[in-house]
Design goal:
- The protein is of the alpha+beta class.
- The chain is 18% helix and 19% strand.
- It has 12 helices and 24 strands.
- The strands form 7 sheets. Strands 3, 4, 5, 6, 7, 8, 11 and 12 form an 8-stranded mixed β-sheet that branches. The protein has a 6-stranded mixed β-sheet with strand order 1-2-24-21-15-20.
- The longest helix has 14 residues.
- It is globular.
- The chain starts with a helix and ends in a 6-residue tail after the last strand.
């Protein structure tokens, strides 16, 4: 549906509806926009030419409606598309604490990166722990879901018209230079970490040439459907005059791995992401030790001089949301690999399937309780070591980090006994722990815990593509 043409039809539609009253001439443009976005089919069904309307309705009334509402400034008849109203932000008060919410006051919480080691045991890396993952959560295409829930789509709209590049954090809620992803209606929020799936499939979309659609003018899937010619009966896009061409993949393409999966977990949009693990230096929610020593706020998204950032932004159900950008999710369509990753009963060996690649993270036996991996210790991220004044970070050594073969943000945890490994380096601290390379750990089979149940964790590394 062309933006200008749609809005020019609105007055005639209102006049032809049985519930029309002259008072409706005074509906605000924003209310008219909401009506049109919510009821696109109704508008198309009743949109009629004024010449056909006049014999039935009072001609002066029809002309008065047209003169009053025909081409209001928010959406002219020249092809300019009216932007969606800004309705606020996603409420993160019910999010799991790992996703940026303070369990005490339900407000945002400062989240710091965890320190880990690359495979060489020397290079340090920063990562985010976002919980353990069941095999059901690893079913990224929902192939074993008996309810046949569609995968969550992230609409990536290209071709929007950039607005002003200036950004004032005191008055601006989002930038006008790039379109944020629009998350599909099947999205779930991270309120229950044991079932939450952070993976999304990219649904490509492009603004039709000649349509003046500004970046972030579209803020919801329903609005995109109205502007993308989506037919509710056939569930097909591009079925009428439209502002955006939308080309979502088919289910067969998704389950064949012919799509791009993203590691984009929803996050509390107001949660500060600390540059360091020291709250005094990077968390704006704690009291400053001295005036002038407070953490520096970002003057714009990604400000390199800031001591913390806010999550990357998206649109979720018409509201401004946040997410951590973990980049592309590496996948596999090898049935021999996927059959062991996905839930029991999968049909990978007969019909094929898609699953995420799996990385490996080696952790010390300090994460064990009664022979099992303790999720509370994993969530805390620290452990008490005799002789040390403060808790120590959990040791985590990754077999692969971003850009290396075998990398994935889904890591199988392999536990080792630090007293049974032979490694060349140790921590420079009281009661030092061994700092091992992946090769050294592989050459110490006696240090492994083979009976520990298989455990997958979400080990996210922020994308460096921006």
């Amino acid at each position: 549906m062309k933006g200008g043409r749609l809005w020019c039809n609105v007055p005639v539609v209102l006049l032809h509806e049985p519930w029309y009253t002259p008072a409706m001439h005074f509906l605000s443009p924003s209310r008219l926009r909401r009506f049109a976005i919510a009821e696109p089919r109704r508008l198309r069904r009743f949109a009629i030419d004024v010449s056909r309307t006049a014999p039935v309705l009072n001609r002066s009334l029809a002309l008065g409606g047209l003169l009053g509402l025909l081409c209001f400034p928010a959406a002219s008849c020249s092809g300019t598309v009216a932007p969606d109203d800004y309705l606020g932000t996603v409420d993160g008060s019910g999010f799991d604490p790992l996703f940026g919410t303070n369990t005490t006051n339900l407000g945002p919480a400062c989240i710091g990166p965890r320190a880990g080691y690359a495979a060489n045991g020397t290079d340090t890396v920063s990562w985010y722990y976002l919980g353990t993952l069941s095999q059901t959560q690893l079913d990224i295409s929902n192939s074993t879901d008996p309810t046949r829930t569609p995968v969550t789509g992230a609409y990536a709209i290209s071709g929007c018209a950039p607005g002003s590049a200036s950004f004032d954090p005191r008055t601006d809620n989002y930038v006008l230079t790039q379109q944020y992803p629009i998350i599909g209606g099947t999205i779930t929020l991270p309120t229950k970490i044991t079932t939450y799936k952070p993976w999304q499939v990219v649904f490509p979309a492009k603004v039709v040439a000649g349509r003046a659609l500004g970046c972030n003018d579209i803020k919801s899937e329903k609005s995109l459907q109205a502007r993308g010619g989506y037919d509710l009966d056939s569930h097909l896009w591009n079925q009428s005059d439209r502002d955006v061409d939308v080309n979502p993949p088919t289910l067969d393409q998704i389950r064949a791995g012919m799509v791009t999966f993203k590691d984009w977990p929803i996050f509390n949009v107001a949660a500060p992401l600390m540059k360091t693990q020291d709250p005094a230096k990077s968390c704006p929610l704690v009291s400053c030790a001295q005036p002038g020593m407070c953490p520096k706020y970002p003057k714009s998204p990604g400000d390199p001089a800031a001591d913390f950032q806010f999550p990357t932004q998206n649109w979720v159900r018409g509201l401004l949301g946040g997410y951590l950008d973990g980049g592309d999710l590496p996948i596999s369509t090898n049935p021999m690999v996927c059959k062991d990753v996905l839930p029991a009963g999968n049909t990978c060996m007969t019909t094929g399937c898609v699953c995420p690649q799996v990385n490996t993270v080696y952790m010390s036996s300090e994460i064990l309780t009664a022979g099992k991996i303790d999720t509370k210790i994993l969530a805390a991220g620290t452990v008490t070591i005799a002789g040390r004044k403060s808790p120590a970070n959990l040791l985590a050594t990754f077999a692969a980090t971003p850009g290396q073969p075998g990398y994935s943000p889904i890591c199988q945890v392999k536990v080792y006994d630090p007293t049974k490994v032979v490694c060349t380096r140790k921590e420079d601290d009281v009661a030092p722990r061994p700092l091992c390379t992946v090769d050294e750990l592989k050459m110490s089979p006696a240090a492994a815990f083979p009976k520990v149940p298989t455990t997958y964790v979400h080990c996210l590394f922020l994308s460096q593509s921006k």
